[in-house]
């Protein structure tokens, strides 16, 4: 249980020789859990200040041959959706790609229903990641503590510019992903295709006056969303209104 006096030290930053990969690049609090993304591509879940529920190695460093540049593995944004049962759907993103993971307890359902569950917290085993990454056809399976992860989908190069936010609608049916110039709309149950709903790219880059910094759905309406810009403005849009109107 979290209280307003809890202080969590999830990186050993008191050391003078800490590794830059321990740096936190994303944090959110949802469903009474603290979710943390790190510079080394790891995603962690804390149920309380003393218990790390799981740890997932989502992204790794890659090289973009078209741009001749490295793509860092750091987690820049994430969205967590409860699947209505014993599993969660994790949407995790670095600067260029979005991965969809199914997170569930690696315990028989009968034991979960009967509450015969003993969840093992994650221990500090540095070699665990290499041992638990198992190729399985087109998917990856990853185990951490009492949890199992299946990679359901990976979308690369859907955003040409740096991804800066992910956010789901109230009913969890839709997902927004945005970069500096575009906002895409996804159906969370089918991540094969995205629809571009906002595009501020000018004809000439010299005419670019601002960029998109974040996008979010309205907290009580699935059809209304907003996005902020580098000009300090917040624009509100309605998916039910045609762009030509």
What features would you describe in this structure?
By secondary structure, the protein is mainly β. Helices cover 4% and strands 49% of the residues. The protein has helices spanning 109-113, 128-132, and strands at residues 24-30, 33-38, 42-48, 51-57, 62-64, 69-71, 77-82, 87-93, 97-105, 134-136, 139-144, 147-156, 165-168, 174-178, 182-187, 190-199, 212-218, 221-229, 234-238. A hairpin with a 2-residue loop joins strand 10 and strand 11.
List the helices and strands and how they pair.
Layout: E1 24-30, E2 33-38, E3 42-48, E4 51-57, E5 62-64, E6 69-71, E7 77-82, E8 87-93, E9 97-105, H1 109-113, H2 128-132, E10 134-136, E11 139-144, E12 147-156, E13 165-168, E14 174-178, E15 182-187, E16 190-199, E17 212-218, E18 221-229, E19 234-238
Antiparallel strand pairs: 1-2, 2-3, 3-4, 5-6, 7-8, 8-9, 9-12, 10-11, 11-12, 13-14, 14-15, 15-16, 17-18, 18-19
Organism: Hamiltosporidium tvaerminnensis
Protein name: Regulatory subunit B of Ser/Thr protein phosphatase 2A
GO cellular component, one term: protein phosphatase type 2A complex
